[in-house]
Amino acid sequence: MPDALSVATAVPALRATGIEVVAPDGRVILSVGDISIAPGSRVAVRGPSGAGKSTFLQVLAGLVWPQRGAVRWGGTDIAAQTEAGRAAFRRRHLGIVFQDFLLFDELGAIGNAAIAQAFAPRADRDGLRRDAAGWLARLGLGDVGVRGVASFSGGERQRIAVARALAGNPAVILADEPTAALDRGNADALAEDLVRVAAAGGRTLIVVTHDPSVVARMDRVIDFADGRLVADGAV
Fold first, then answer.
1. What pTM was estimated for this model as a whole?
2. Which is it for strands 204-208 and 42-46: parallel, antiparallel or unpaired?
3. Contact (Cβ atoms closer than 8 angstroms) between residue 229 and residue 212
4. What is the spatial distance between Cα 190 and Cα 162, in angstroms, rounded to a whole number?
5. pLDDT-derived band at 179, boundaries 50, 70, 90
6. Is 44 exposed, middle or buried (0-12, 13-18, 19+ CB in 10 A)?
7. 161-177 per-residue burial string, b: 16 or more CB within 10 A, e: under 16
8. How far apart are CA 44 and CA 235, in angstroms?
9. If we measure between CA atoms, which residue out of 81, 95, 113 comes closest to residue 11?
10. Which value, in Å, is the radius of gyration of the alpha carbons in the chain?
């Protein structure tokens, strides 16, 4: 079982300033003047579809490169890194849960949850696989054997994606609609697990969500509309 009380690296503070993401036609997709998130915060990001929430999360992860601005995780401006630099930063510090799962159908649950071992130094691979197996067990998928991921439900796929994000013991968890594919009971259980893991290890948790139950478990909520931050305060 993974040790939820430990974090592999120090949890960095976040400060994003002057962020602009512009579409090829010149339309501003995202504009963020100045936002700071302290280490260990639990933050919900919400707003209507098309408001810029997922783009904001992808900018924080270095998956979308803004045309302007800085995204500083501690002393590192991820927006100023090369593609290779951003990928290396994600591997060391960030666990990401994508809205569309992004799993490999030809692999089983453990193959997907432990996919990071394919890119990790040889000395770290066994540990990553053990952690991935532990998270799968904690999320109720410890007895699925060699089933291919194509046979899993949407909810099961999401739990595999969460196990993959947590397997590297990240200092920061970024999740895009993690409960969207789950029934109410499983959604609440997953939200509780994410909050508990983040709180126990002092991790930062930033969740894009439409789920009021997830928002209620956060300590701060940021609202977006039309690509701009329109409200920011305590839950």
1. 0.87
2. parallel
3. no
4. 9
5. confident
6. buried
7. bbbbbbbbbbbbbbbbb
8. 9
9. 95
10. 17
Which pairing describes strands 68-73 and 76-77: parallel, antiparallel, or unpaired?
antiparallel
> Do residues 138 and 2 make contact, with C-beta atoms less than 8 angstroms apart?
yes
Among 80, 85, 48, CA closest to 65: 80
The C-alpha atoms of residue 160 and residue 102 are separated, in whole angstroms, by 10
Closest CA relative to residue 40, chosen from 200, 209, 229: 200
Contact 114, 128 (CB under 8 A): yes
Measured distance CA(207)–CA(196) in Å, rounded = 14
Determine the Cα–Cα distance for residues 54 and 71; give it in Å rounded to an integer.
15
Residues facing residue 28 across a β-bridge: 22
Q: Which residue has the tokens 């890119």?
A: 119
**DSSP of 148-198:** BGGGS-HHHHHHHHHHHHHTT--SEEEEESTTTTS-HHHHHHHHHHHHHHH
Residue 79 corresponds to which tokens in the numbers above? 């927006």
| DSSP for 189-226, written as a single string | HHHHHHHHHHHHHT-EEEEE---HHHHHTSSEEEEEET
Strand order through the sheet with 94-97: 76-77, 68-73, 14-22, 28-37, 228-233, 220-225, 42-46, 204-208, 172-176, 94-97
- Block residue for tokens 């990790």: 120
- The predicted-structure confidence for 159-177, as pLDDT tens digits, reads as follows 888 888 888 789 999 999 9
